[in-house]
Amino acid sequence: MITLTLKAEPGVPLEAEALSPDVVANLSHEKVRALPMFLGKRQVRVDEFFEVDGDGSDEIEIRGDCGKVKWLGRGMTRGRLIVAGNAGMHLGAYMKGGTIEVSGNASDWVGGEMSGGLIRVGGNAGGQVGAAYRGSRTGMTGGTIGIGGSAGLEVGMRMKRGTIAIRGKVKDFAGIEMKGGTLIVGGAELRTGAWMQRGTIVSLTPIPLLPTFAYACSYNPAFLRLYAPQLAPLGISIPFEPTDGSYLLHTGDVAVSEKGEILVWQPRAS
Amino acid sequence: MLRITGGRVYDPANGIHGEVKDISISGGSIVAAVEGPGVRTIDATGMVVFPGGVDVHTHVAGAAINFARAMTPEDHRTAAKFIHSPVTRAGAGGATPTTFATGYLYAGMGYTTVNEAAVPVLSARHTHEELRDTPIVDKSCCVLMANNEILLDLLEQGEVERARDVVAWLVWAAKGYGVKAVNPGGVAAWKWGKDAKILSQPVEGYQKVTPAVIIAQLAAIVDGLNLPHPLHLHCNNLGAPGNFTTTLETMKVLEGHRAHMAHLQFHAYGGEDWGSLSSEASKIAEYFNAHPNLTADAGAILFGNSVTITADGPWQHLLYQLTGRKWGNLDVENETGCGIVPYTYKGGNVVNAVQWAVGLELLLLIQDPWRIFLTTDHPNGACFWRYPEIVHLLMNADFRRERVMKLPAKALQRTVLADLDREYSLAEIATITSAGPARALGLPRKGHLGPGADADVTIYNDDPDREAMFRGPRYVLKGGEVVVEEGDIKKVVEGREFIVQPSFDKSVEDYLRPLFEDYYTVTFDNYPVEVERLEGADIRKLDIS
């Protein structure tokens, strides 16, 4: 285990893709301290901003308010990255494997275009969780993201595979242009699933639906019974028992295809 | 003063095919000999010496490519990066390289002259600004004409004399070098939601003007104005199954005139629909071989990501519908249009596999290397920095066959590439990448190493891996200065811009001025590009024959 403690919050965003198990694992204490990061356009060393404790390891713990530290765990394929505090934009972007755990909040683009691994954020996340970067055709293609709080705009934009589970509410355009995968939200604002081609959006509370989604039926999908125990360790519980209620299935977006689905939980009237 | 010694020189324009010979350089030009103590020497023993490459058809500057750059941030994220250094500016490579990177990439591959093949007059100023920021290489550009409504109106009224003056005036207004025709009549028809697919059928909005009329008249005007480069023609029906008949008809219309057929690969398809698309490269090549008034560039495709950009708006709308990907559409007032669609050519896709074969077939079946040139219609078929891959395919029949055998079986049945054994020699490669395009562009100081030529010289290691050889020249000299050494940019020089000033009757401005006031968003006086705006302008005045 190597521990990095932020000395002072950077004035401008600090680009820290070096802080990933793949980079750090086999490096000595000295070499980790000397790793390059960019503060704006200026190249700096890790130890200018972090107290470093321990040698390189597959397990990294970062302490302090890293809300302005970007690209933590970028493209990581293995190991464990723990952020005790907040994390900045692009946390775990392009990630392929391993685990990231954040106790505080994370900013935008958590797991942007990730293809594998697990990201768990205890607090809130910004927008574009698991989304495609601007211009890209596909967002996340695998892995799991769990958010304990709420999230922002365009969550799961163009995602193709994998699972995003968000306990709280998300803002507009959740699952926009979604191509596959599963997006579970505690609730959502406007235009959820706009232009979605395939995939599943599950909302645990009623949400406003676009007129291009058509009601199909009410049922209790078997797959959610299987998902539930997987999601429980992320702190997200989803109902699935017919005795508790059922899901209203809406298909769409008929503006582009009818193969996407939005499931909205309806508790049984007691 | 500089002497390159001991290299095997390929200078097809001067009949030199691999002789060991010294090349002497003084004052930026090739000279017969240099003497004295101040002469520096580059020892090229065991190396291969070519005249600097010349790209006859590429899209590197102006509104369309810039729109494509803006549309594809995802490509820039993964593209080769050019980091700011004391020598170079920052930039990105990829499918649509940025301006400075374009200069570095061309020079890094041994190319020293490029022709931007499609410039609307309305965005000519923008084009020249970007060309100015495209370092090292010399540049020229072709001005889009075949859908200019002022011109089409004149042809409708039979006012050929005045049409000639308008063409000459427009070339000079754009500070262009040649005349480009894209889908003649088709882009004008696109403004009505239509296309022009039949050469003999009047263009939407006209009674008499047909694509054939536009092609024949423009070719005659270009010849009459004595432009050094013939009409640069993108035929009707680009990319469509069965379009080879249109191409053959077009070539017949051009009889008696010079013409350059752009990206011929996109115009040599048989079949009736996408399911039956096949190669008709042999029919095209057969006709082409027998008609020395024509030159062509291959417009070959390579598998991988590209961005298609063309003034051919209707085709791009179709491509957008086929792919479901991003689509950009630009309307350039009364002059032309433009469409942009990112595209991925896939080896497993039968249509793409046929296209890949057609490009190579044309390069192999057209016998005279002085009339067919290496291009990918950058960025449409592939990025220009991938030319060395095509050189390898042309020079090594075994390697090519190995690749051909990986094509889908259906594509093999619809192409003849597997049966072609021809291998290009180094002399032929020097012809299709430098000597031939320089001659077709009418640039007497380019594409050869005789006395009086610009000292644009590329020196390669004689690597049996031809792709590696042509990807990373040992030295590249531009105007006598070493700009590239072992793949690194050593020095950045500014390129020139070749511009022609055809003669026209000044009174044509009295005719054009009121039309501008009625139909254009810019005033007549603000329309032409000012000479003072250009850096390194090399202006050639032309007389009417």
Describe the protein.
The complex is a heterodimer of chains A (270) and B (545). Chain A has 4 helices and 17 strands. In chain A, a hairpin with a 7-residue loop joins strand 16 and strand 17. With 270 residues, chain A is mainly β. In chain A, strands 5-1-6-8-9-10-11-12-13-14-17-16-15 form a 13-stranded mixed β-sheet. In chain A, strands 4-3-2-7 form a 4-stranded mixed β-sheet. By secondary structure, chain B is an alpha/beta fold. Helix content of chain B is 33%, strand content 23%. Chain B has 18 helices and 28 strands. In chain B, helix 6 (160-174) packs across helix 8 (211-224). The interface between A and B is small, with 5 and 7 residues.
Summary tags:
heterodimer; A: 270 residues; mainly beta; 13-stranded mixed beta sheet; four-stranded mixed beta sheet; 4 helices; 17 strands; B: 545 residues; alpha/beta; eight-stranded parallel beta sheet; seven-stranded mixed beta sheet; 18 helices; 33% helix; 23% strand; globular
Give the helices and strands, then pairings:
The complex is a heterodimer of chains A (270) and B (545).
Chain A: E1 2-6, E2 14-15, H1 21-24, H2 29-34, E3 36-39, E4 42-45, H3 46-49, E5 50-53, E6 59-63, E7 69-70, E8 80-84, E9 99-102, E10 118-121, E11 141-147, E12 161-170, E13 182-188, E14 200-203, E15 214-219, H4 222-231, E16 245-252, E17 260-267
Parallel strand pairs in A: 1-6, 2-7, 6-8, 8-9, 9-10, 10-11, 11-12, 12-13, 13-14, 14-17
Antiparallel strand pairs in A: 1-5, 2-3, 3-4, 15-16, 16-17
Chain B: E1 2-5, E2 8-11, E3 16-20, E4 23-26, E5 29-31, E6 40-43, E7 47-51, E8 53-58, H1 63-71, H2 73-78, E9 81-82, E10 91-92, H3 99-108, E11 111-119, H4 124-132, E12 138-144, H5 149-156, H6 160-174, E13 178-182, H7 186-190, H8 211-224, E14 231-234, H9 244-253, E15 259-261, E16 269-270, E17 278-279, H10 281-289, E18 294-297, E19 304-310, H11 313-323, E20 328-332, E21 336-345, H12 350-365, E22 372-373, H13 387-395, H14 397-404, H15 409-413, H16 426-441, E23 457-461, H17 466-471, E24 475-478, E25 481-485, E26 488-489, E27 497-501, H18 508-519, E28 537-541
Parallel strand pairs in B: 1-6, 2-7, 8-11, 11-12, 12-13, 13-14, 14-15, 15-18, 18-22, 27-28
Antiparallel strand pairs in B: 1-4, 2-3, 4-5, 7-23, 9-10, 16-17, 19-21, 20-21, 23-24, 24-25, 25-26
